[in-house]
Amino acid sequence: MSLLNEYIQKEQQLKQLQEDLQRMEGDQRLKSELEFKERLEALMEEFGKMPADLIALFDPNVRSNDQKQMKSTDGRRKRRLKIYKNPHTGEVIETRGGNHKGLRGWKAEYGDDTVESWLVRMED
């Protein structure tokens, strides 16, 4: 794509975003949510509270969920499973680290950015 075409496309996207923003600014629901946020922040400041304090107050189970994710004995969280699919061969690689032999081979052959674009999904 030429630089001029890219510029025109970005300009059109900007125009669309500006129209969307203007539409949202007129929405009463947004105004209500912004007012709620401002009042809540003022109240938190008045009482010296942080967002984490509110989360702990309203959802005490959040802390226990964080601790459940820490499964290894050294206190480190388990890495997320990444699943890559090579569009050329159809081969699938599932790995929790970047040191997978096949993945390194792909990256050497096709480049890091290209292989990262083959990421199908990530799982915990």
Fold and architecture overview:
The chain has 124 residues and is mainly α. It is built from 6 helices and 3 strands. It has a 3-stranded antiparallel beta sheet, with no helix packed on it. The protein is flat and about 55 Å long. The model has no long low-confidence stretch (mean pLDDT 87).
Strand content: 5-15%
What ranges have pLDDT less than 50 throughout 5 or more consecutive residues?
none
**What is the percent of helical residues?**
55-70%
Shape: flat
Listing every helix as H and every strand as E from the N terminus to the C terminus, the arrangement reads: HHHHEEHHE
Describe the sheet with the most strands: 3 strands, antiparallel
Could you give the order of strands across the largest sheet? 2-1-3
Distance between the termini: 37 Å
- The helix tally amounts to 6
Number of strands: 3
Mean pLDDT: 87
Radius of gyration: 23 Å
Keywords: Coiled coil
InterPro entries: MvaT_DBD
Protein name: DNA binding protein
Domain MvaT DNA-binding: 82-118
Draw up the topology in text.
Blueprint: H1 3-25, H2 28-47, H3 51-58, H4 61-69, E1 81-85, E2 92-95, H5 101-110, H6 112-116, E3 119-123
Antiparallel strand pairs: 1-2, 1-3
